[in-house]
Amino acid sequence: MYGEYSYATILLLGTVWAPLKEEFTFRYFLDKKKYTAVISFSLFVATVLLIITKMIFSIGTLSYLLFCIYAIIISPAVYYFVLTKRYVWNENNILYSSVLFGLVHLSNFNQDQFTLIEYYPYLIFYIISISFMGYIFAIIRIRFGMKYNLLIHSLFNLLVFI
């Protein structure tokens, strides 16, 4: 069921690695500071590149290393983008981050499921529900801070895995 990973490994990845990666990617910048925007945007671009790479190549456990390499390589370009004041924070960023959070979670599915039309209503509902969770996580991030957001996200994922 879990492919090349044991249940314990999946549990650890889902309750520690995924919340850390996702919260720093999709909600770290919500405090309106430029350095957090650099980190979040770099991680987002690295996530997208990793998803594209996984669609083309079978990389298995190398994906975690590749994600870090992508983020390091991309950071200078994102740093330049943010420093040249092309980045302007606005209230819509909460909505954008929530929808992107939902869309990125489509990578949890097998590509064969995208070719079957009967899965489309399920996928749309999935995107909407995960985006809604992303919105809730964004509100928690803004009101209570990053550590509480990480804790809630980890506990939510733990409930999913149990």
From TrEMBL:
Q: List this protein's GO terms for biological process.
A: CAAX-box protein maturation
Residues that span the membrane, as ranges:
35-57, 63-82, 94-111, 123-144
Keyword rRNA processing attributed: no
Name the domain of life this protein comes from: Bacteria
**Domain CAAX prenyl protease 2/Lysostaphin resistance protein A-like, residue spans:** 8-159
Could you tell me which InterPro entries the record lists for this protein? Rce1/LyrA-like_dom
Q: Does the keyword Lipoprotein apply?
A: no
Q: Molecular function terms in GO for this entry?
A: endopeptidase activity
User: Pfam families from the xrefs?
Assistant: Rce1-like
Q: Which UniProt keywords apply?
A: Membrane, Transmembrane, Transmembrane helix
This protein's name = CAAX prenyl protease 2/Lysostaphin resistance protein A-like domain-containing protein
Q: Which organism is it from?
A: Flammeovirga pacifica
For this protein's source organism, the top of the classification is: Bacteria, Pseudomonadati, Bacteroidota, Cytophagia, Cytophagales
